[in-house]
Amino acid sequence: MMFMATKxxxxxxxxxxxxxxxxxxxxxxxxxMAVEIKPRxxxxxxxxxxxxSSGKVTKMVFSWGxxxxxxxxxxxxxxxxxxxxxxxxxxxxxxxxxGFTITTQACAxxxxxxxxxxxxxxxxxxxxxxxxxxxxxxxxxxxxDPLLVSVRSxxxxxxxxxxxTILNLxxxxxxxxxxxxxTGNPRFAWDSYRRFIQMYSSVVVGLxxxxxxxxxxxxxxxxxxxxxxxxxxxxxxxxCGDFKMFFREQTGIDFPQxxxxxxxxxxxxxxxxxxxxxxxxxxxxxxxxxxxGTAVNIQxxxxxxxxxxxxxxxxxxxxxxxxxxxxxxxxxxNAQGEDVxxxxxxxxxLSELSHKMPEAWEQLNAVRSMLEAHYKEMQDLEFTIERxxxxxxxxxxxxxxPAAAFRIAVEQATKPLLTAxxxxxxxxxxxxxxxxxxxxxxxxxxxxxxxxxxTSTDIERxxxxxxxxxxxxxxxxxxxxxxxxxAVPGAASGQIVFTAAEAxxxxxxxxxxxxxxxxxxxxxxxxxxxxxxxxxxxxxxTSHAAVVARGWGKCCIVGCGVLHIDYERKMMTVNGRSLNQxxxxxxxxxxxxxxxxxxxxxxxxxxxxxxxxMQWADARRTMKVRTNADTPYDAANGIKxxxxxxxxTRTEHMFFDTEERRMAMQRMIVADTEADxxxxxxxxxxxxxxxxxxxxxxxxGRPVTIRLIDPPLHEFVPHEEAKQQELAKRIGVPFExxxxxxxxxxxxxxxxxxxxxxxCITYPEILEMQVRAIIEAAVEVTRQKIKVAPEIMIPxxxxxxxxxxxxxxxxxxxESVLEAAGVRVNYLVGTMIETPRAALLADQIAExxxxxxFGTNDLTQMVMGLSRDDxxxxxxxxxxxxKAAIFDEDPFQSLDQQGVGMLMKWAIEKGRGAPGKRNLxxxxxxxxxxxxxxxKFCHALGxxxxxxxxxxxxxxxxxxxxxxxx
Length: 966
Ligand code: ADP
Ligand code: MG
Ligand code: MG
What we know:
Elements: H1 17-26, H2 28-34, H3 39-49, E1 61-65, E2 68-69, H4 76-91, E3 99-102, H5 104-112, H6 121-136, E4 149-154, E5 165-169, H7 175-183, H8 186-204, H9 209-223, H10 233-251, H11 259-273, H12 277-285, E6 295-300, E7 311-316, E8 328-333, H13 338-342, E9 348-349, H14 353-356, H15 358-375, E10 379-386, E11 389-397, H16 402-414, H17 420-428, H18 434-439, H19 447-453, H20 456-463, E12 466-467, H21 473-479, E13 480-483, E14 485-488, E15 491-497, H22 500-508, E16 513-517, H23 525-530, E17 533-536, H24 544-552, E18 556-558, E19 563-566, E20 571-574, E21 577-580, E22 584-588, E23 593-596, E24 601-602, H25 608-620, E25 624-628, H26 632-640, E26 646-650, H27 659-670, H28 674-699, E27 703-707, H29 721-731, H30 735-745, H31 757-762, H32 764-783, E28 789-794, H33 800-821, E29 828-833, H34 836-840, H35 842-847, E30 851-854, H36 856-864, H37 868-871, H38 875-879, H39 900-913, E31 921-924, H40 932-941, E32 945-948, H41 953-965
Parallel strand pairs: 15-16, 16-17, 17-18, 25-26, 25-32, 26-27, 27-28, 28-29, 29-30, 30-31, 31-32
Antiparallel strand pairs: 1-2, 1-3, 3-6, 4-5, 4-6, 7-8, 7-10, 8-9, 10-11, 12-24, 13-23, 14-18, 15-22, 19-20, 20-21, 22-23
Helix pairs in contact: 7-8, 8-10, 9-10, 16-19, 16-20, 16-25, 19-25, 25-41, 26-28, 27-28, 28-32, 29-30, 32-33, 40-41
The structure holds adenosine-5'-diphosphate (ADP) and magnesium ion (2 copies).
């Protein structure tokens, strides 16, 4: 890893060319996440930095300037993104105004000591300030020709707009005159001073921004002036006087004139902005944790507000929304940094620079190509032009849309940034060093790099519809009803309904519906499937609603606590607003926001580069990727997403599909003699067979793993009296019998109860019916000349003898069907490994099993002794960084590699160690099969395949390739 929190560097780190520049920095975006300092580590780092025993003071300030720098691009964690970028740009020879960085560790220490500067910091800052003054040959705030600086925040992860910056520090009543004289430009000097007073007053002292803005506004208005730039020097001087008077009125003291005091105050303000409410909220919402503080950068000012040969801009080395290889950005002439972002004037397009200041434009193009060649990533840049000379003020890996992420990765791996002619031109002009002229005419990354660069989030976001970005902010704010937990991203809008049955009815009539429930249960899946989005009042990211919806890639918000549902009156109230059944709402599942009304959605089209990356990934991976699919529709969808087979078909889901099927199933359950049960099963058989035929056809010869019935029977029957009465009437048995049977089936902990293969031990006729349906379907499609490869999977086994019995029974039924049909079909019979006992005794289990499939949902529950259905109440605390932080991730989302993973490793070794089982086919079919880190772990364990819901297949394909690349 690039730098350890436990060892605060005391001297500049040697630059190792290979490691620092190209590999670590090149992948800034991802690495930043990988090296986040854990709070615990940070604590020990800080305690060391106090240097209690030796009394030695840690180095807390790092300089850069004149092509030299004490830090570099690898030191993001202590110098922040901005500081390390400025150092790195200096080192590769770009024009960066000199300066120094106060480390994030100093900031952490500042907070530990009750907002006091840590010992030694003042001396170090003074020392580096002197050094900076020497470099610039000017003194901070000097009366004649003053050095001015900016004081800029910058944490290891970018937090746009969250933290503070102060420009033109060092100006006071004398130095402003000096600056006016030495530049011969009083307008510029007074403009700079009024900016400084404005920023200092609001950022450091906390005075109202608006009041000062208004003063500026009123002045412009009274003079009939539109642009700040047209204000004459004299007026700006008056404005400064006004500002200072306001300062005095509000604070009782004069505006600080001593540059050192100004600097001290500004540094405190930047430190202070780290814990400002908005910064805290931003970090919480963006799930940024593990950062210890912000760095502070003190940098010589360059002036974009010196006239029409000056300006400032923000740009991207490629178009961040499409990824097109085109220099893209905004430019303001005669302006200082903040103006572009603040939107004070409408900026012009960056390309305008080529007419306005052709030389600066060429220089900037050279910088663009050098930075891409160096960082091997699309960069987001800030620059200022002072009287025709270009200065770089910031670079970082640029944020981009998912589509752009794919295009950039593919183009960086296949095409050069510049044509040979473009490079030659810049070389001749001496803007581009020779070394770079070569680099920029070749692709800067490999295909493997491109594969590594795409994240699972990039893929996910590519597929989900989103609220039309053209929708205005104010419209959104007005429509916002409530927020909940963003369980499944994407957006959906539709009419609200409150029961699964109504969801199905409405949907059947062609309505788009949002199913709103307190929570959902397996009985609701029909309605959930019919809905375009799901909203629940309770539950977390692993609740039934969330897990099921995720499987379908269906927009879902859970845990929306302010939601009150009145099922009787078919209405809900949120924050005092009532909505009746049939009213429209729009869900933003990515943000977890519920809006009133029907907002326009757009479905992003898949960019061609997506297919390219996936093709590269498929060529690279060694593990197969299958999909979990319960219907022919899911199966076809999985294939479209690139699945190579089915790893899990949950046969019981077929029983929920229609009223007729549910009824047959319930009749089977209520039956209390084998004969009655068989009669009911006979009704189910044709449905199952039809579904299997559909699935086999869709899979066209690819392997299909079919799991026999799994959930406990009580999940299939109604629990309310009214529903039981209705059921009794419909299947023609006395109500009392239904009630009795349901209470008899009642289990207090269904996850460990009468389910999985235990059902078939008790009711062998269920297994018989299911196997018959599978094999008859296989016979049918074989007759239609379609290849078929069924794998019959027995869930929840715990013992070789138990499994042996069921395997034998399965074979007996299968063979008798095949014999009667006179057709040969190859099929496998295997088991899921989802109980700890099965994992422990995997060598015995393997003797009677033709394959293993890890059911990591149940395995996780049982290894950890926590039920997934109840975990939502306390598991979040286990993951919450601010609370217990026991696990890094929810073990139901990302596999617990340590604990559950150890059992899996054991089971694989034991299973493949059994006689004749060296090549035992092994896969995974839990939720984890579609989660990047878990897929990589499965690769490392030597699994043959992973299986996941259709929408996660591309994520698994990519992760498998990334794992193979290593
Ligand atoms: P943010 O992180 O919000 O972008 P910055 O620290 O980058 O804040 O600064 C805000 C603006 O001020 C930027 O446009 C930047 O380019 C400009 N700026 C910062 N330091 C200087 C400087 N030394 N000279 C000129 N402009 C500067
Ligand atoms: Mg910036
Ligand atoms: Mg299971």
